[in-house]
Amino acid sequence: MVKLLLQYIVDVNHRDVEGNTPLHLACEEERLEVARLLIQHGAKVELLNKDEKSPLDLAPPSMKRSLQNAVS
C-alpha cells in the first residue's frame, strides 16, 4: 500500500499541523520498512517537527541505527 501511495505522493516531506512528516510518523510507530521506503523516495531525516525532533529522534535505538546506515 505504501509503495502505491508513494507513486502518487508529490511531497514525501509534507508536514502535518505538528510539523511531522510521514517519516516522523513511521519512526514513531516503529515501521522500519515504511521508513526505508520513504527515505528511498526522498524523505529527509534531518527535518524537525514543532518539538524540534527529527524522525530519528523518535525512532527506537535499533531502528535509528538501521536508518542511519541506510542514509550514510
UniProtKB/TrEMBL annotation:
Q: Which GO terms describe its cellular component?
A: BRCA1-A complex; BRCA1-BARD1 complex
Please give one Gene Ontology molecular function term for this protein. ubiquitin-protein transferase activity
Start and end residues of the ANK repeats are 18-50
What GO biological process terms does the UniProt entry carry, in alphabetical order? protein K6-linked ubiquitination
Which residue intervals make up region (Disordered)? Answer: 53-72
What are the record keywords, sorted?
Answer: ANK repeat, Repeat
One of the Pfam families matching this protein, by short name:
Ank_2
Cross-referenced PROSITE patterns, in alphabetical order? ANK_REP_REGION, ANK_REPEAT
What name is this protein filed under?
Uncharacterized protein
**Which species?**
Magallana gigas
The major lineage groups are: Eukaryota, Metazoa, Spiralia, Lophotrochozoa, Mollusca
